[in-house]
Amino acid sequence: HGLGIDLLEFLYHCMWKLGIKDLVILVLLIVYFSPSLFNLINISKGWISEDKLGTHIIIDYYNCDSSAINNAPEIYNMVHKAVQDSNATMIGDVMVHQFEPQGVSGLVMLAESHISLHTWPELNFVSADIFTCGDTMHPLKAAQVLGTYFGSTRNDTKIIARGLSVV
């Protein structure tokens, strides 16, 4: 089972053991201390299913280091590391573009699909997109590498199963 499903099962069992009032308190504590963990509750059973064509992860990184997310050469290197650490296969090279007066966009095409990102240093914010087909790439590992480099203290992550009705 994926982490989100295990957490849902845990909360369901807690409801019977603790009662609804204590369950609400437990959920509020989880939300307060780990917003990114709470977002994983939204993972549907489809995401962990073998009956999908791909996994699409959309991440908003908040409170990022403005100098790190405005450095195109370092973002280039970091995307290479994310590809390597996630067991992805690059097709061609990482493309990055430095905007004036600030901001960077990056894209890498993968045999598994792609990683793209856009930065707003003036807002300490990065938006990233990781799409993968198959099961050889570990997209959450790529997301972790990105967040660590950006110095993000909070993220909003959405994980979407793609192609469920096709398979």
Describe this structure in words.
This protein is an alpha+beta fold and about 170 residues long. The chain is about 40% helix and about 25% strand. The protein has helices spanning about 5-20, 20-35, 35-40, 45-50, 70-85, 140-150, and strands spanning about 55-60, 95-100, 105-110, 115-120, 125-135, 155-160. It has a six-stranded antiparallel sheet.
Number of strands: 6
Mean pLDDT across all amino acids: 81
Low-confidence stretches: 1-5, 35-49
Class from helix and strand fractions:
alpha+beta
> Which sequence of SSEs, written as H and E, runs from N to C?
HHHHEHEEEEHE
Through-space gap between termini: 20 Å
Query: What count of helical segments does DSSP give?
Result: 6
Please describe the topology of this protein.
Blueprint: H1 3-18, H2 20-33, H3 35-39, H4 45-48, E1 54-62, H5 72-85, E2 95-98, E3 104-109, E4 113-120, E5 125-133, H6 139-150, E6 154-162
Antiparallel strand pairs: 1-5, 1-6, 2-3, 3-4, 4-5
